[in-house]
Amino acid sequence: MRALSWAYLAVAYAFVFLPVVVLVAFSFQDGRLPVPPFQGFTLDWYGRVLGERDLMEALVNSALVAAVSSLIALILGFLAAHALARVRLPGSVLMRGVLIAPMTVSYLIIALGLLTLFNQAGVRLSLWTAGVGHVVINLPLCFAITYAAMGDQQRNAERAARDLGAPEWKVLALVSAPMLAAPLAAAFFLSVTFSWDEFIIAFLLTRFDVTLPVEIWSMLRSGISPATNAVGSLVFLVSVTLVILLEVFVFRRAK
C-alpha cells in the first residue's frame, strides 16, 4: 500500500512538473527550434531575452501591475474582512458572498465586463485598467484569507486598545494588521503570483503598454523558439521565488 502511495505521488508530480522541465530544458537548446533532439547547451537565448527592450519593459510593467494591484486588493480586502468580522450588519452573509463571487467567475467574463464599462465611460486602456482588473480578481482572495484568520484573540486585543483610548485607525494599523501579518503576507504574495502571469485580463485591458504574458503571446504568433522557452522559464523562476519567500518568511514564522 505504501509503495502504491509513493507511485501515485511520483505520477502526480511528473504530470504537474514534466511540462515545466521540458520548457526549461529546451530553453538551453543550441538550435532554432525547441524540439528534440537536444542539440547542445547554450545561454544565448537568455542573453537575447535579457537584451530585448520590449521584453524588459513588459517585465517591469508586469511587476508594477502585480505589486500595485495586489497592495490595493490587500488593503481593500483587509478593511472589508475587518468590517464584516467585527460589525454585525444586515445582509452581511450576502455581502460576503458578493465579495467572494468573482472567484467563481471566468477571467474572460470579468475582462469583457470591465472592457465594456471602460469603453462606455471613455477610459483609455492602459496598465491602470489592467491593474483594476487584477484588483477585481485578487480582492476576493485577500478578503477570504484575512476573514478566515480573524478570531477572538484579535477581537480582544482591539477591544483593549480602544479601552486605552486608541483611535480606530491606530487599532487597525498597530493592533489588527500586525496580529494578522502572516495571513496578510500570504494574501499579498499569492495575489502577486496570480497577477504576475495573468494573460486574459491584461490582454483585453491594455493597448500599447503591455505586460509580460501579452508580450510572450506576441512572440508566439511568429512561431516558437528557444527564446519563448527562456522567457517562460524566467516567469516560472519568479513565481517559484515568490512561493519560496512565502514559505520561508511567512508560513515557517507562523508555525
TrEMBL record:
Domain ABC transmembrane type-1 as annotated: residue spans: 59-246
PANTHER family the UniProt entry points to: PUTRESCINE TRANSPORT SYSTEM PERMEASE PROTEIN POTI
Bilayer-spanning residue ranges: 7-28, 58-81, 93-115, 127-150, 171-196, 230-251
Record-stated family: Belongs to the binding-protein-dependent transport system permease family. CysTW subfamily.
InterPro entries linked: Bact_Polyamine_Transport, MetI-like, MetI-like_sf
Coarse class of the protein's main subcellular location: membrane
Membrane topology: Multi-pass membrane protein
Protein name: ABC transporter permease subunit
Keyword terms of this UniProt record: Cell membrane, Membrane, Transmembrane, Transmembrane helix, Transport
Cited CDD domains: TM_PBP2 (cd06261)
Entry's localization field: Cell membrane
Classification via SUPFAM superfamilies: MetI-like
Domain of life: Bacteria
